[in-house]
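Help! Submission page says 'invalid entity' but I think these are all valid:
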Amino acid sequence: MTRGDPVLTATGLQKFYQSGDRRIEVLRSVDLTVAAGESVSIRGESGSGKSTLLNLLAGLDSADAGTLAWGGAPAKASRRAVFLGIVFQSFYLIPEIDARANVLMAARMLKAPGAKERARADELLQRVGLTERATHLPTQLSGGERQRVAVARALMNSPQLLLADEPTGNLDEHTGDVVIEMLLALCRETGTALVLVTHNVAHAAKTGRQLVLTNGRLA
Amino acid sequence: MPWYLYLAFKQLFPTGRFPFFTAISVLGVTLGVAVLVIVTSVMGGFGYEIRRMIVETEGEIDVKARGYVADPREILAKVRATPGVAAATPYAKGAVAVLAAGRTAYPMFRGVDVNSVESVTQLGRFVNPRSSLAALDDDSVIMSSALANSLGVRIGDKIEIYSPLIIEKMKSDEVFLPREFRVIGDLYIGHQQLDSSTIYGTVRAAQDLYGLGKGVHGIYVRVKDGENEHAVVARLNATTLPPTMRAFSWMESWEDFLWVLNLEKSINFFLLLFIVIIAAFSVMSSLLISVVRKTREIGLLGALGARARDVALCFCAQAFIIGVTGTLAGVGLGFGVLAIRNDLVHGIAKIMQRQDTLRQFYQFSDLPSHTLTSDLVLTVVMSIVISTLAGLIPAWRAARLKPVEALRSE
Ligand SMILES: Nc1ncnc2c1ncn2[C@@H]1O[C@H](COP(=O)(O)OP(=O)(O)OP(=O)(O)O)[C@@H](O)[C@H]1O
Ligand SMILES: [Mg+2]
């Protein structure tokens, strides 16, 4: 991968679901290129395939056609932990461990965390305003706080790309605004590219490029 | 520590919460292992006691003659002089017919040398009254209590004994009379195999019954403390004994019986192992529930970059940790119960008012226990292996989950 390479290159992505003898064409042909440090928002009606697309971009699901590259090299599951972070609508924190351990979990996927990783986790928790809450279990945190932990976890391994699927979907309006501001600011500071799926027009407007998914295509 | 081990520990023992599910799974394994440890130890204890009884009634080495030795004095002296031999006593034995009060039995008549028998065996310990062994003369016998009961004979009664020699005499048309003996004591060893029908008398009485003259069938030997009986057996066979005689350790003499004892223990072990297997099923079902409950988190682990193999290992590790914890606790509990076993048994006997029965039935009024390291190792290894195997199906279910589908599940 060279410096000029886009962080994400998707060409002609297709995804079908077969239900009985009906074929649901969710994604017909999606082309998307995201440059390093760029922020992109994707809107679309419910059921238009935004989550499907994001899962494809994250390499969590495989496309029926098309190609996907991360940083100029083919996307592979084994590269995911290092290359990208994901934030979902539900926070998916591990309930048995505290906030700090949840953030560190991303680092654990690569190696047992040392002092450097712990310091980074603490720094991220501080950035999302949860220093006081570091030793709280997920059940002891509010929805907004949980999502902030999830954001810190997604950024733990200093990924080049952050994928966020309606990260404010489960939060009230004000909390949602706070989380989005935080997300955008963190990505800007760290030079992380962002693909943000959202219903919220105001949130979308804050990203560098606004796209809409309709009829299985991005426009 | 790889993440899957870390998470395995954390899922079993969550921060700041009592690990309820884990405790139940562990408890199952603990109970199974404890029962295994207790039962194999007590059975081992009975086996050990029986072995001790064999040695205490017959010595550690049996020097058998082919046919019989006509004059045992010389060989007896040689055996006694063999290094490692502490004491030796001659014996003559054979099947006889006993007639008493109109009933017949065909016990083994064991002729012992009253002067030296107690230097080799501790027969006196099992004889009632104790003095009767020393009081044994050529017209008196000590009868095993099982035989006495079945014949309806009591101490002081007279019995008639016929030996195979009478058949010889009948062939040559000689007049024959049975020998009459007085029962002066009874014998109770505590194991059916050893107690079944036996009559103890003097060597001379046995020689008369079998027409041996001064001859004997063999010599019982006790080895010196700290001597290995197999080494002494080898020494006797190599140098001391003529080709017509052979020494056997008690283990060789009782090989079949010991094999059966061992078989009993193995069967018990196998049956009790099912408790551990059932406990493993409970480990499996609680882990399966955990996989279902944590489906979304498993999806998340995939999203964080976990490999399916490591997800599987996470659940296998949980089963392993439960297995190890439960097994160690079970060994602890087992030895704990064994340590207070006599208080327990006496307590139960007291509640049921059966203390006398207990003493009557088992020579040892205390419950024996003898733990073999090999049994313990087998228990520990089997239990850990079985528990870990129980994690395979949950692990496979977890590894099979596709991240997207797992994350979508509600
Ligand atoms: N596993 C599946 N099997 C069949 N159809 C599916 C499956 N997953 C998604 N779909 C269908 O694909 C379409 C797109 O789903 P997706 O979740 O991507 O929509 P979305 O744009 O994220 O909607 P929302 O805004 O409500 O989250 C929907 O019509 C959905 O029913
Ligand atoms: Mg969606």
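Support: the input was valid. A stray whitespace character was the problem, and the output above is from the cleaned input. Residues A 17, 19, 24, 26, 44, 46-52 surround adenosine-5'-triphosphate (ligand 1) (CB under 6 Å).
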